[in-house]
Amino acid sequence: MTYDHSADPDPMPAYYAGLAPPAPGEPLAGNHTADVVVIGGGFTGCSTALHLAEQGVRVILLEAKEVGSGASSRNFGQVVPYLKPGHASIRKDFAPEVAERMITRVGHGPDLVFGLIDRHAIQCQPRRNGLLFAAHAASGVPGLEARTRFWQDRGENVRMYGAAETEELVGSRYYRACSVDYRGGTINPAGYVRGLAHAAAKHGATICVGAPAEPPERVDGKWRVRAPGGQVTADHVVLATNAYTTEKLWPGLRESIIPVRGYALASAPLSDNLRGSLLRGGQPLTDTRRTHSGMRLNEDGRLHSSTLGPPFDIEGTHDMARLHRRVTTVFPQLDGVQWEHRWCGWIALSQDHYPHLHALAPGAWAGLGYTGRGIAAATLMGQDIASHILGRPAEETTFPVRGLKRWWMVPFARSVVAAGIAYHRFRDKLDERQNARVRAA
User: Is the pTM of this model over 0.90?
Assistant: First the structure.
């Protein structure tokens, strides 16, 4: 399986891009020198550029298309204080001091995101009123309870609710329990990434767009990066291309992840009656099923929902039948909903589901592999990379520096991922049948 972001037409504009201020940037023209050259204008690259520029570092960012044109403007928009693996897995997989630092700092990831939004007046429709995680079946309740207790024991504002409260929050009798994490919230992801870039530019960073970078070259102890229109020579280079990494950019980097296509839709504005009947607390809804399950009601009255589609096909389209079944199972009143916007983008899966921070060579850094937890984690990753470049102690960072390893499964990704999705959908269907029997009883 190969993937070249320059070949991806992205024919469906992301809904959130139309609600965001214009993206910043200018063409690369001529030869330039800088302290740091960043390749990639998504969350990771823009966060890196901002955190460096705020410290007076000369930064030039090169983006192949426009700022946020990839997954950073196409995701669900949740600012989540978790990684894909839970706290128990983190403690098992890392040394105690590293695990504790990751858990704590990721848990405060929304503080960083919403703090940047406030400090730089980023226009991204921020809404920090919590994240709602509902148990799609009885099997999902123990995990939510354990996570809620863990964070409550650490003094965080996370609460578990029973059937009556869950019905009131969701606007549906489908779920019997839920957990609300009041640390998190939602944003317009396109507005956020563009706002990071604007803030970086205000602090002196140069944002170059329409500048697909060639592989970095080591020349006389510095890094040289060529792109249409010119080149940049710098002491440090940062590769922040995530799922849009090409095979030629750096040996083995593309093979360390598997890009998978994610699909989303936004409805026509709902009537006032329908708006008032669902998600009354204003939180986005995610449930514990194994396949995509997110829904959020935006300020313009549109329902945004994720769904499935062909995981590797850039010409593939959304599974509308599955989406309709899921939405109307939870919210029967939405049987006639019309979907006006649809879009897709690439998600980078890592082998262990953790974000990966790599020191590729002297002065060369990469951060990628967020596995669907990109907003807070990628913002933290940019902060981490900036900290390393500034020479700060590792104790001030979130993610440990790890060696770059090719993922053995990459050549077999199509068949393995397809089998995994089919298995998860089968398990979810069994849960649906059990739920139907319980409700009927």
Answer: yes
